[in-house]
Design goal:
The protein is mostly beta strands. Helix content is 15%, strand content 39%. Helix 1 runs antiparallel to helix 3. The longest helix is centred in the first third of the chain and has 67 residues.
Length: 665
């Protein structure tokens, strides 16, 4: 029995040792298999992550290229026209973002199909990323409207960025819940303090070499390949004959291109007729630097963030005049409170100011407004002449064109006139045709100087200012011409102090202006303005702009401007922009070579005079600026009979008259 027991113990030991050997072998085999499988899975995950980052970079490239210059990259951008990235959406990051989301979803499906043997599950999600610690507002949000891609440009430090979280499962590779935050960036920081050569004073015109330094980081790492695989563009302001234009540095004008290290570049180029201007506590040359890396991602920086100037009032506090039927001079003193002294000014891209068609004198040369999308631009104005009262004020973007008027007159007799083309297309860049319209008030007699700052927002998702989102831009003026108006009662410019009804070939009869039988007078296509009480709509009567001759020898004006008013009261651009109305002023334009007779149908002539009228209804004021240009095509003599009997420059008929004054220019 003992021997048998020993055998049993020995057999058990042998079996146990055999099991241990088999287990060790199986463990070794499994470990080798897992290591091999994990290495392949890790490489696949890394490949998927790298491909996702490249896909993200390609979408950031598309968005920034089309935003910067759609025309230059038309062959690329136009591929996505059907997806919404047409020319009207060139400054629409939302459209580019929607295309990117669609593309990445397509990329996901392609990855799953390509790696189906691994049981791949891949997805991405939007994440919030803080881009710059020193600018807390510069983030990529996690919401689909402004997430995924975000760009902050037009400051000395600018950045283009895209980010998402990638999650990967390999069901047949033993990888579950792998995730990583993928961030693609290109940042540019320009040193705005451009060194001034010895002997050059601020404001002097300068032609010669200029040195600019800037640092480029790609994915937060120094980027050293700008000159070999990227692209550099520099634009600077150049003055000539009182005008300023932005000049692109040509390849032949680069004098030195140096990579210093750590992402820092030093570039020397030849500039013509530029100058150093003061911005805050430093002097700089107005300049834009645009960098594009090898992936096609673009970022743009400016050497300044605003331009500023002062508006100085030189109107007298006391004037002398001789009253009618008197031979004695009397004085009129301006009151201490002047709340209605509000000037509506127009600023061009070279910081020239216009008021009522007149160019105002300028002292000094502030930096020009840069050529950036007009939707980025804002205006601050002081209220009492002290910088502490600088506040944002409403701004209106208009397009004006300089024409030689009238077009059919002999060349020697034409005059240069600026005429409005309408409110701007809110997708356009600031250029020589755009004017920023804003108001400067002098609420007290002792305030002689107000300060104005034109600045810009760096977020490319910035939308134009709109009353629906910013009460500052809500006004009390409107153009009322309802489409459902079977009796043709309304074509109004409405203001809290008055209502102006426009008469012309399309709207011939004014409501409330009736004969003894109660029938509305027919103006037979003559262009005029009928004044109504803004509260009761009572009709005061017509405001006739110009007339020549007397009808049938009476005191009635014979031939008056005949044509159609064009009214500019809404912006242009994308459909949502076309619902934004003018916050500051509505402009009505009459440009005609015809004259007509309000007393006789069909009495229309084209041989007497041309008329150009610019009429404004201005928010926050109680006056109506009107500019009237008249060109006589021929002289009038006694042989013309009643035609030579008189001339009206402006008449207000009925019971409405200006209470304080009427200013004709």
């Amino acid at each position: 029995m003992a021997a048998r027991g020993q055998f049993s113990v020995a057999a058990a030991v042998v079996i146990a040792v055999s099991l241990l050997l088999v287990t060790a072998y199986l463990y070794s085999s499994q470990l080798t298999f897992v290591e091999t499988r994990s290495r392949a899975a890790a490489e696949l995950v890394a490949s998927i992550a790298g491909d996702f980052k490249r896909a993200l970079a390609s979408m950031l490239s598309l968005a920034t290229r089309c935003y910067f210059n759609y025309t230059e990259y038309r062959s690329l951008c136009s591929v996505f026209t059907a997806e919404g990235l047409d020319f009207s959406n060139r400054h629409n990051m939302t459209a580019a973002r929607a295309i990117a989301l669609t593309f990445l979803n397509t990329w996901l499906r392609a990855q799953v199909d390509a790696h189906s043997g691994y049981g791949l599950r891949v997805r991405y999600s939007l994440i919030r990323v803080q881009l710059q610690a020193d600018r807390p507002y510069r983030v990529i949000p996690a919401d689909p409207r402004e997430g995924l891609i975000k760009c902050y440009w037009y400051y000395p430090d600018s950045i283009s960025a895209a980010a998402a979280r990638l999650e990967v499962d390999l069901l047949k590779g033993g990888v579950y819940g792998w995730k990583a935050d993928i961030l693609v960036t290109l940042s540019l920081e320009v040193n705005p303090q451009i060194e001034m050569p010895e002997g050059v004073e601020p404001g002097d015109l300068y032609t010669g070499p200029i040195t600019v330094e800037f640092r480029v980081l790609q994915d937060s790492m120094p980027y050293s390949s700008l000159f070999s695989e990227g692209r550099l563009r520099i634009y600077y302001a150049s003055w000539s004959d009182g005008e300023v234009r932005w000049v692109k540095v040509r390849p032949s004008d680069y004098l030195d291109l140096e990579y210093v290290g750590n992402g820092l570049y030093r570039v020397v180029f030849k500039a013509v007729n530029t100058r150093w201007v003061q911005v805050g506590d430093y002097y700089t040359v107005p300049m834009a630097v645009v960098v594009e890396d090898g992936r096609g991602i673009v970022v743009e920086s400016l050497t300044y963030t605003y331009t500023s100037f002062a508006v100085v009032k030189r109107t007298p506090d006391e004037v002398y005049h001789m009253p009618e039927y008197s031979s004695t001079w009397e004085s009129v003193e301006k009151p201490l409170s002047t709340g209605e002294e509000v000037y509506t000014l127009e600023l061009t891209w070279n910081t020239t100011l216009f008021w009522l068609g007149r160019q105002l004198p300028r002292a000094g040369e502030p930096p020009p407004v840069p050529l950036i999308p007009i939707k980025q631009l804002r205006v601050n104005v002081t209220s009492d002449g002290t910088l502490s009262t600088l506040r944002e004020r409403p701004v209106q973007y208009e397009v004006w064109r300089r024409v030689w008027w009238p077009p059919d007159a002999p060349e020697s007799e034409r005059i240069a006139v600026w005429v409005p083309e309408g409110l701007a297309d809110l997708t356009m860049d600031y250029n020589e045709s755009v004017r920023l319209v804003f108001q400067v008030a002098f609420p007290r007699r002792d305030i002689r100087r107000q300060y104005v700052v034109v600045w810009w927002l760096d977020d490319l998702d910035t939308e134009p200012p709109d009353c629906r989102h910013n009460p500052l831009y809500c006004s009390c003026i409107e153009y009322y011409d309802p489409p459902d108006d079977p009796e043709d009662l309304y074509r109004d410019l409405r203001h809290p102090a008055y209502t102006l009804e426009l008469l012309d070939v399309e709207h011939r009869r004014a409501r409330g202006y009736v004969d003894a039988e109660g029938n509305r007078y027919d103006y037979h296509g003559v262009a005029a303005v009928v004044v109504h009480d803004s509260s009761t709509d009572a009709c005061f009567g017509p405001w006739n702009l110009y007339a020549v001759g007397t009808y049938q020898g009476s005191y009635l004006g014979w031939y008056r401007p005949y044509g159609e008013w064009r009214v500019f009261y809404r912006y242009r651009g994308r459909p949502e922009y076309e619902q934004i109305e003018a916050p500051i002023r509505i402009i009505a334009v009459l440009n005609t070579s015809l004259v007509g007779n309000v007393y006789e149908e069909g009495d229309v002539r084209s041989d007497l005079y041309d008329t150009l009228v610019l009429l404004e209804v201005v928010n926050g004021t109680r006056y109506v600026p009107v500019r009237v240009y008249v060109y006589w095509k021929r002289g009038v003599s006694a042989s013309d009979g009643y035609l030579s009997n008189g001339l009206w420059f402006s008449t207000l008929m009925g019971g409405g008259f200006p209470e304080m004054f009427m200013y004709l220019t």
